[in-house]
Amino acid sequence: MKFDELLAKIGGFGRFQRIQFGLVVVPIMFIGMNQLDLFFLVSTPGHRCLLDNDTVNYLRQSPNYTTQAELESAALEPGSACSRLVLNLSEACLQPADGGAGLTYACRALGVEDCLDGRRFGNEFGATVVTEFDLVCEQSIVATVVKSLTFVGPFIGGIAFGQLSDRSA
């Protein structure tokens, strides 16, 4: 016997079945929206270190570093969003390194340091939990734990209410 035949035999999809269907589907829609919100609220946008004021003011004296992108290319570690270069802020940094052509400058890095002055985040998502609480680099594990903890409730609830439903049947 097919389901359509069984449904016709018991009187069709009546009021009781519609109520049961609504009681199951409506909560599922809200759960789905909640899980989808998690993607936007805990997403990590692109980010770079902010430069300290001494470095910015010093490099702005050079005609070669006029835009923010040029300043960042001189003072940020290539390929890293979690650290910046410690520059030797001397007169040699402002002098052309290629014999006066003015194309490259001799800012020598003394080392690498963490982002001590904060970060500049991209605006792909607007404000997220990650941007508000600076959950990147060393703190990125916190965002991962938050994402994981959202599934603890359904896990425990599934076990508890699964056992409860088995006992009442």
Describe this structure in words.
This is MFS domain-containing protein. The chain crosses the membrane at residues 21-42. It comes from Macrostomum lignano. Keywords: Membrane, Transmembrane, Transmembrane helix. With 169 residues, the chain is mostly helical. The chain has a domain at 47-121. It has 8 helices and 4 strands, in the order ααβααβαββααα. It has a two-stranded antiparallel sheet. A two-stranded antiparallel ribbon has the order 2-3. The longest helix has 27 residues, at 15-41. The two termini are 25 Å apart. The model has no long low-confidence stretch (mean pLDDT 77).
For the biggest sheet, the summary is: 2 strands, antiparallel
Spans of 5+ residues with little confidence (pLDDT < 50)?
none
Please tally the helical runs, counting DSSP H or I stretches of 4 or more residues. 8
String of helices and strands: HHEHHEHEEHHH
Structural class label: mainly alpha
Beta-strand percent range: 5-15%
Strand count: 4
* Spatial strand order of the main sheet: 1-4
Helix percentage? 40-55%
What sort of overall outline do the alpha carbons produce when their principal axes are compared?
elongated
The average pLDDT score comes to 77
User: What distance separates the N and C termini?
Assistant: 25 Å
Computed over alpha carbons, the radius of gyration is: 29 Å
